[in-house]
Known about the structure:
alpha/beta; 7 strands; globular; 7-stranded parallel sheet; Rossmann fold
Amino acid sequence: MTAVSTHVPRQPPELLGQTVIVIGGSSGIGLETARRARAEGANVILTGRNVERLGEAALQVGAQRTAAFDANDPTALQSFFRDVGAPIDHIMVTAGAPHYGPPLQMSTDEARRGLTEHLLLALEVVRGAANIVRAAGSLVFMSGTGARRPRAGMAIASTATVAFPALIANLALELAPIRVNSIAAGFVDTPLSASILGQDLDKRRDELRAKLPIRRVVGAADVAALAVHIMINTALTGASYDIDGGQQLVF
């Protein structure tokens, strides 16, 4: 009997010829998203605050261009959008970090930043994107799941996290037909996580490997795969997608 060989044609890259901006693309989830988008044929534009690290990231993924600025500075952000020029297909936003700490010991200004910074960044990105993103394009924002359960020291981060999906859903209606979604991640093994945990990083990794249903730690590449899928799937908008390896089920 002669074996029959079935040839399955390779699918063409699904972002071929499209342009993806990654705001916060010099490391971690942003860099991995840029790498994944490039593998799907996209041209990528990276932004970040650190010029040197941004240059290294651009070389790694073959970025079309870079721009160094603080994404939480509305003037700088809108200036970047005005300078981009060509129509953009997708924007991924990973810039920013949660504000942890005892709320009663925070200054009013620090608490205000923690409650509003992430929300206002999303709003400013949508304002700028409205003029440059194609109708079939998308915006993807990062959020988290870890602050959903009340715990001491998490009041500010929890409040901002809970509010974010409501903002995303409403912005999806405001920006339609451009799609707006968010990714809510649990612990992700990135340089940001390492800077937060310091010497406790390995202990946290071991704990997660033992307890998570997936029996491994979620990495930046896992989140990047989800981000690019959201860009590609044109039926997705106004939603928040959890990726935590089952962390919410066991912690």
